[in-house]
Known about the structure:
Elements: E1 9-15, H1 19-33, E2 37-39, E3 48-53, H2 58-70, H3 72-77, E4 82-87, H4 88-93, H5 95-100, E5 106-108, H6 116-120, E6 127-128, H7 136-139, E7 151-155, E8 157-158, H8 169-172, E9 177-178, H9 181-193, E10 198-202, H10 215-223, E11 231-235, H11 244-252, E12 259-261, H12 269-274, H13 281-294, E13 299-306, H14 313-326, E14 330-335, H15 352-376, E15 381-389, E16 395-400, E17 405-409, E18 418-426, E19 431-435
Parallel strand pairs: 1-2, 1-3, 3-4, 4-5, 5-6, 7-10, 10-11, 12-13, 13-14, 17-19
Antiparallel strand pairs: 8-9, 15-16, 15-18, 16-17, 18-19
5'-deoxyadenosine binds next to strand 13.
Amino acid sequence: MTAHNPAAKKLFIKTYGCQMNVYDSQRMAEAMGAEGYVLTEDQADADMVLLNTCHIREKAAEKLYSDLGRLKPLKAARPDLKIGVAGCVAQAEGAEIIRRMPLVDLVVGPQTYHRLPAMVRGEAPAIDTDFPEEDKFDHLPAPRATRRAPAAFLTVQEGCDKFCAFCVVPYTRGAEVSRPAERILAEARDLAERGVREITLLGQNVNGWHGGPGGFGALIRSLGEIAGLERIRYTTSHPNDMADDLIEAHRDVPQLMPYLHLPVQSGSDRVLKAMNRKHTSDQYLRLIDRIRAARPDIVLTSDFIVGFPGETDEDHTDTLRLIERVGYGMAYSFKYSPRPGTPAFDRPEVDAAVADARLQELQALLTRQQHAVQEGMIGRTVTVLFEKAGREAGQMIGKSDYLHSVFVDTDQVQVGDLRAVRIIGSQRNSLHGELIAG
Ligand code: 5AD
Ligand code: SF4
């Protein structure tokens, strides 16, 4: 036991990237909790630093190496400090990470983090990027019976078989695997008993889930029967996996929130084909029409890649046209980043200045749409699940049905309350509301 830390050992986790990494970090914290580690927010005070990484774009991976560089003085001062790298960079780079950064003690991929405690004890190899037969979730300690925050993530599916030409996920997360329905329902019931009122089902291709009869729509219907679980969301979906039954669930299941993240990436058929997305812009638009027919108030969001190899001004205009046709509530847009090992890696790149200009134009349009949707909420009554106190006294923050952050000036609500709120204002990335009496 070290002098600076007389009590339990302390674990600091930094999470990069997507929501699935947030979920994985929680599960790793639980696994290490069984080994006597408690979480700390203070990296300088930690006995172990775990970086749970993202490999999706070059910038995300480079962030890991600069953070590792910054850990050098800490490791020099305290050689017993353990440094671990988890997540998708760990999967993609494996032993290369320790070669480049010898201060790293262990490297664990997203499918083997149940072995982390044994690795830390020195009872398992320090580098583990297997895709094992066994399911990590079967080997992780059950979450402890503590109260939870009102909104939680639940991973139901991992991996991807779609092989979009730009994307590392099929290589870092592996083939599509669905968790069985019984396990998911048991975890959801446990979360509901511990105070969770909203769950977001996670998967790289979440709507491709096939871990039980009836597919993903049927899973959502079963979750809708769990007492106390008032809201269900899911992310991220592929257009080709939007089955009729799932669209109907948006009409029939009151707990399923009117919000859908359905990335299209581009509005040009030529680019979609080069990306290997396996659908046209027209097919996507017709799908959107069917989803809106089932749930007219649904808020739609997407991801876009700008400057994919071969993208012309005309392709870019097609993307702007698709965006205008859909009217998104919010969207993420990225400049194409060539990733080693993906089919598009060697293709000639679009001029960087041209890609930058296109990105700006696209983002300006998406921002206008976001604000139009937010302003359209003014005067409407939504429900808000309150998640935390605001920075200013007497202010509470929660999420609306449509996933907008809503600020309310009130001392009448607590974290976990679900209340009717009238929207009275729209700021840049949030709404302002007032409680409705009663
Ligand atoms: N370059 C830029 N953006 C990418 N994305 C995935 N791979 C790349 C890449 N190589 C984006 C896609 C995806 C989101 C999670 O990240 O838009 O939907
Ligand atoms: Fe990547 Fe495409 Fe799979 Fe999404 S569907 S994870 S973008 S390969």
